[in-house]
Structures are given as C-alpha cells and as structure tokens.
Design brief:
Length: 311
C-alpha cells in the first residue's frame, strides 16, 4: 500500500476515505483536517483561549497535541474522579495527563473531586438517587459542572472535549432508537455558550476512533489504554459494537450516518420544533452556575445531601 501523497510506504489505510498515508503525511493530515472542521463549524478563532478537558485517554491528549501544533492557546483540565477499579484508573490517567503537559511545557489545571468536595465519584453515586450503584450519570453531571465552573472562573472562551465519531455516532444511534427529539436537536459539534454556560466544542467529532488511536500511537503519546471500569457492559459500548459491525460491511457507514444527520437537521428535519437548548433560566445560589430550575443546581443538591449523610 502506497501513500497517496508521496508514494512511500503507507502505514494507515482508511477504507472509509479511500485513502492510505505514510506516517509523516498521516501526522500532517489529522491536524489539517481538524483545522478544517474548526473553521467549518465555527468552533473558535485563532485568538480565543481554549480549555481542553483531558481524561488521559488517546482522544483528549491527541486533541491537546493537535491544537498546540496548530498554534492555538490551549490549556488542559483534568478532573480527578477517584475511580480505582482495581488498577488505579484515575491515578494512572492523572499521571499520564500530567506527563503529557510536563513533556510539552503545557499548563494543566487539576480538580480533585475528593479534595474539593470531600467525596469521590463512587461514593457520591452510592449516596445519590441518580447513582443506583452505576456512577456514570453522577460522573457525567459532576464533569459537566466542574468543566463549566473552571472555564468560567479562569476566563476561557471555549471548552473542548475529545469526543470522536464513534462516541457521537453511538449517542446518535441511541437517540434515534427512541427518537428523543430534544437530545437530537442539541447534538452538535458546537454548543453556543450564553449566560454563564461556556461554549462547548468537539473538534474530533468526524474522526473514527481508530484514526485517533493511530494518531496517538504514531505521535508517541502515552495514554491510558483501559476504559473506565464502570463502562464495562454499558449501552454505549454495545451501540459502538453494532455500528462497527455495520462499518465492517460498509466502510464509511458510520461517518455518513453522522454527517447525514447533521445535514438533515440543518435543512430542517425538525423544522417547527423550538430548539430547547440548555437555556439557563436560573442561577444556583450556592455555586452561581446557571441551572434549569429555581433553587440549587442538581450538583450542589447532591453534594449537600452527601455532606448531610456524613455528619
Ligand atoms: P468520556 O465521557 O469518558 O467518553 O469522555 C469524553 C470527553 O470528556 C473526553 O474526551 C475528555 O475531553 C472529557 N473527559 C472525560 N473524563 C475526563 C476527566 N476525568 N477530566 C477531564 N476531562 C475528561
Ligand atoms: Fe465517569 Fe466512568 S463513571 S468515567
Ligand atoms: Zn507520504
Ligand atoms: Zn450549584
């Protein structure tokens, strides 16, 4: 297999794009494509201050690497969730996020849930009615709360996450199975910020997961291979497997599923439906962040309940 650009030996063959590239040209192609997506979806401009949420995984570390390579000002945020899973999942992911920052002279902000709020995610999920022993929903809420809090407090213009095409296609598949219109309306590469909600962007949303794995490996980025131990058996992993079966038979199916959805929505698939963005109607009296309902936000209510139970 030959590199389409230089004719040298290709190391990556992307059937979905009918494109094979050598290491050098692959490592150029990914950032160039990312720059194209950033412009196409109006994610941010060259002078904006970006906060990248880094989990220590391949996607978010690669995203940080790419933004840095493209010349953007991008700092990192790592949220210590306190998940062990028998192999020190959070500790190891923190170590790798920190190593990447140190090796590249980048700034990493760290928020540790237990240090900041006295409880880690597994404990909060035991206490909270949301948890039911499965911490993922509590964890998602806590991450969203902390990402927004830090982006606001430290004055960042935009918050970037490492969601890739496989993540987005799996969410889309789930929301399509139930025709959850409100979620479908909101599933975008860019969510505009307003009134204390930071703008959120997903610059990697058009890259296959395996494309990001190849990028991280070829760039020599050290990342955590293990998934979060609580994700085992999750619905989203099941949807990803289903979509991979489809992709194997029909290369490009996953990408066109996602892109045709974005296109159909832009052309008015849900015309007439009022877009229910996360309109922040109220301000939480405890943390001053926007919330959907009057009174304390659900994150602050959860922390308060945990404290009450521990007194
Ligand atoms: P996940 O929800 O684990 O698939 O992660 C999606 C994205 O959320 C990642 O690509 C990161 O940008 C961000 N993220 C996940 N976990 C963390 C964390 N512990 N700290 C900071 N950002 C995170
Ligand atoms: Fe949050 Fe797994 S429960 S990353
Ligand atoms: Zn080449
Ligand atoms: Zn609050």
């Amino acid at each position: 297999m030959k590199c389409k650009t230089c004719g040298g030996k290709a190391v990556v063959n992307m059937r979905q794009h009918n494109l094979a590239l050598c290491k050098e040209h692959y490592l150029e192609w990914i950032p160039a494509q990312t720059a194209r997506f950033i412009k196409k979806y109006w994610m941010f401009g060259p002078d904006e201050k970006i906060l990248v949420a880094v989990s220590g995984g391949k996607d978010s570390l690669s995203l940080w690497d790419i933004l840095h390579k493209l010349g953007y000002t991008a700092d990192g945020l790592y949220i210590g969730l306190g998940i062990d899973g028998g192999f020190g999942y959070s500790k190891e992911s923190h170590r790798l996020a920190k190593k990447f920052a140190d090796d590249n002279g980048l700034t990493l902000h760290v928020v540790d849930m237990e240090e900041t709020y006295s409880f880690n995610i597994p404990v909060l999920s035991e206490i909270s009615a949301r948890g039911h022993g499965k911490p993922c929903s509590v964890c998602g809420m806590a991450k969203r709360h902390e990402m927004n809090r830090i982006a606001n407090q430290l004055g960042y213009d935009v918050l970037a996450t490492g969601h890739n095409l496989d993540d987005e296609a799996a969410v889309l598949f789930g929301n399509t199975l139930t025709w959850s219109k409100d979620y479908l309306l909101r599933q975008k590469p860019v969510l505009d910020g307003h009134d204390g909600l930071a703008r959120k962007v997903k610059p990697l949303c058009r890259f296959y997961e395996k494309e990001m794995t190849a990028y991280a490996m070829l760039r020599g980025i050290e990342y955590i291979y293990d998934e979060c131990p609580f994700s085992v058996g999750s619905t989203s992993i099941y949807y990803k497997e289903l979509l991979n079966q489809l992709e194997n038979e029909r290369p490009g199916a996953k990408l066109s599923f996602y892109l045709n959805f974005l296109d159909a929505r832009d052309k008015g698939l849900f015309a007439g439906d009022v877009e229910k963005e996360e309109i922040p109607l109220h301000i939480c009296p405890t943390c001053s962040q926007p919330t959907m309902y009057e009174g304390k936000c659900s994150f602050c209510r959860m922390i308060e309940k945990a404290r009450g139970l521990n007194e």
